[in-house]
Amino acid sequence: MLLSLAPTLRPMIERLRLRADLSLADADAVLALPHRRTFLDHGTYIVREGDHVDRCCVMLAGFVYRHKVVGSGARQILSVHLRGDIIGLQSSLLEQADHNVQALTRIEVAFIPRQAILDLCGRYPMVARAIWADTLVDASLFREWIANVGRRTARQRIAHLFCELALRQEAAGLCEGPDYSWPMTQEQIGDATGLTSVHVNRVLQGLRAEGLIRTAKQRVTILDWDNLQEAADFNCAYLHLPEADSRCARRPSSSELATAGSC
Amino acid sequence: MLLSLAPTLRPMIERLRLRADLSLADADAVLALPHRRTFLDHGTYIVREGDHVDRCCVMLAGFVYRHKVVGSGARQILSVHLRGDIIGLQSSLLEQADHNVQALTRIEVAFIPRQAILDLCGRYPMVARAIWADTLVDASLFREWIANVGRRTARQRIAHLFCELALRQEAAGLCEGPDYSWPMTQEQIGDATGLTSVHVNRVLQGLRAEGLIRTAKQRVTILDWDNLQEAADFNCAYLHLPEADSRCARRPSSSELATAGSC
DNA sequence: CGCCCATTTGACAGCTTTCAAATCGCGTGG
DNA sequence: CCACGCGATTTGAAAGCTGTCAAATGGGCG
Questions:
Q1: Alpha helix (H) ranges present in chain B?
Q2: What is the pTM of this model?
Q3: Which residue approaches D7 most closely, CA to C1'?
Q4: What would the pLDDT profile of A111-157 be if each residue is shown by its tens digit?
Q5: Looking at the complex, does the CB of residue B227 fall below 8 Å from at least one CB of chain A?
């Protein structure tokens, strides 16, 4: 059942299995994809706006973020990505990249040639469907972010970002209780939520004072999930996580998590 | 070369041809898709958040918009769609719809069963690739909108919306000079840009006073494209319109358009 | 002619931004 | 082990863009 030889791309399989029912043959074909595994330092650009990209990138460890720079020089972060996420498909099917992708932390990734992906999709329809579905989930997150920066208060936006990254880390099997890694500075939180770092700082102080979160260096502890979720106006449906359906509206509290063994 | 029988889905072919090189066989297969053509009144919901959707929808005429409603009751418009756009693929590959799709005007659409699309994609890889690429362009627009509501001023956001819809109408072959149909009320412009209708009204007055645009009922005239584009911080690269490459950074002025015959 | 929705207008409150400047945290070098 | 350096976090005060709340005006349609 589990695959043997150098399963570098296993995070990719795990992800695609969430998006469609893959047969063993499908999974083997994915694992057999040609790829180059590498480590990259914090700050490294994976894609630059305007680039012509001919490969995609599977996240194995660490965090990256997509962003755009507007005319005034301000930066807008568009999404954050972690283990299992597949990025750069956009850029590889389209003419040129319309945004930047940059490492938020030191990362481990696998680069897969664009043509290998296209060939795979041509021969394994269910894999194609899974990858396509994954890009559609990507788009769903973008839509939620539009609503987040467009119609929520600063407090809600920031709390929402915490909820999203926490749940996605859980889904990727990265969590250990209510404690999550937190790769963003306050300035980056601002760039993700359309706020200034100064204001982010003040809102963060509020969330801490209310006992919703606790921050340490590079980590965050969610002390009160229920209230944080409410403060965030967060509904995880947009993440399209299978089996999250029932747990979603009211996700298990931190204490329940310990016994549920889901982490 | 041109196709004969009831080419209801021709707008879809024209769109997909922008996304990939389709053979005649590919095109015929698309035109042969089973579908139901219908007219729907302004305000009709095509997809509701939470729906389980089993069809997609090709726009033939009129405008629709996607939107979400946040906890406070405020609405955020996520995108506007016109002739040739294919919507509801998101909802048909994923479990349930994460946003609403509603008619902005009276519209003409063709509904295609989800399974027919999946079958088609399985048998015609280039069609699959074209449709996939089209959904990726969709995602690109979402990303630009995140940057728009997140990091631009009210004036830029609104001007940007005008630029986008103008260029997309041109690309769809809907325009007749610098005069475009404009299906949105000021309140809807606000919902699309994260502003209130009151403020939209004031900004609009500014744009008119500066001679950038002129609005009539349901229509807008772009009087000074170059300056509107500059006021909008608009760069059309994110639309991924073929051949717009060179015209993009500096698009032909209104006067040039008349002689270029591009409309 | 009258209703209803969209557009305007005014005054005022307020959430966020700006602009500095101080403090903190932490890896590095002496 | 401690000083240094630099980025990240905090803090303060003041300005400003945008929102809020009404109310008036305008335009289209039955």
A1: 10-19, 24-31, 89-93, 114-123, 125-151, 154-171, 186-193, 197-209, 225-232, 244-249, 254-260
A2: 0.92
A3: A185
A4: 999 999 999 999 999 999 999 999 999 999 999 999 999 999 999 99
A5: no
